[in-house]
Design a protein that fits this description.
By secondary structure, the chain is of the alpha+beta class. 47% of the residues lie in helices and 16% in strands. It contains nine helices and nine strands. It is globular and about 60 Å long. 36% of the residues are buried.
Length: 301
């Protein structure tokens, strides 16, 4: 009888110690469970004790955005007006600073005209004609204004480009008959850039490849702006715009739009930086490149 009673006590002790070990094991996890509390503590049902990995990543992105806001405010205190928008296709993060403020497009509107020309060809179930490409290539690669005017008119001018805007999702862009005076926002420009690579968007594969090829091969003298943030091994596309007018007291509008991507898909970002009231073109280029570089520094794409 005594031996039987001792056996019962020993078994009970083992169960208690075993249960404690299980609890300790569950609490010593490395976090892969996203903060799950062991079922032993919750009556058999696991619950979360903290944010998941996805939630933590979202919190971190929000923190980086606030830090970038602060950095850009310091720049804005000492420079002409600018705005910037970033759309990270990999994470889905969209960032803007003064993203809804309107600026003259100058020559960045040529990327929009290119998209509309490609859509027109698609609608007719054909490839762009040799004549259309003879205008599109210098328009993008050399920023040729005469070629742009001819293609703009060929497409139907202001009304046709305005109609095309709707297909591209551009809701903050107002087309001007003098195409360089078109008004737009940084937010709208990253929408445009995203449409140029969207496999589910209005542009088919051939059109997307054409747009990439042209914007990836601009003249060396125009290879500034967004490409300045690309790292070795990454690809960059760009269309820049710059203009000065007596109506603005000879001050410069300097804009850059483009994309940066990596072969492994870890970087897949659209960037637009718009500015006006620059004292010189070189000063404007320095400003938009500084702002673009800050987005990469803080958003860590």
């Amino acid at each position: 009888m005594r031996r039987s009673r001792n056996l019962i006590i020993a078994v009970a002790a083992a169960v208690i110690l075993g249960g404690g070990g299980l609890i300790a094991f569950g609490m010593a996890g490395d976090g892969d469970d996203g903060g799950l509390v062991p079922s032993a503590l919750t009556g058999g049902k696991a619950t979360r004790s903290g944010p998941s990995a996805a939630e933590l990543a979202k919190i971190e992105r929000a923190k980086r955005a606030r830090e970038l806001d602060a950095a850009l405010k310091l720049v804005a205190a000492e420079t002409p007006d600018f705005s910037v928008a970033v759309l990270d296709k990999k994470t889905g993060q969209a960032y803007t600073y003064q993203g809804a403020e309107k600026f003259d497009t100058a020559s960045i509107v040529k990327a929009q005209i290119l998209a509309c020309e490609l859509l027109k060809a698609q609608d007719a179930d054909r490839e762009p004609t040799s004549g259309e490409m003879a205008l599109a290539k210098p328009m993008i690669q050399l920023s040729d204004n005469n070629a742009t005017t001819e293609l703009f008119e060929h497409l139907g001018g202001k009304s046709a480009i305005t109609k095309c805007n709707k297909r591209l999702g551009l809701t903050q862009t107002t087309v001007n008959s003098a195409w360089g005076l078109t008004k737009t926002t940084a937010s709208d420009q990253v929408k445009l850039l995203s449409k140029l690579v969207d496999t589910k968007g209005p542009l088919d594969e051939d059109s997307r490849e054409t747009a990439f090829s042209l914007m990836n091969s601009v003249d060396d003298t125009q290879d500034w702006g967004v490409p300045a943030v690309a790292k070795e091994g990454e690809s960059a596309t760009v269309k820049n715009g710059w203009d000065t007018r007596s109506a603005d007291g000879g001050l410069w509008a300097v804009n850059t739009i483009g994309r940066v991507s990596s072969p492994d898909g870890k970087v897949n970002v659209s960037v637009a930086v718009l500015s006006h009231n620059n004292q010189s073109m070189d000063g404007g280029i320095a400003l938009v490149e500084k702002v673009a570089k800050l987005t990469r520094q803080y958003l860590k794409y």
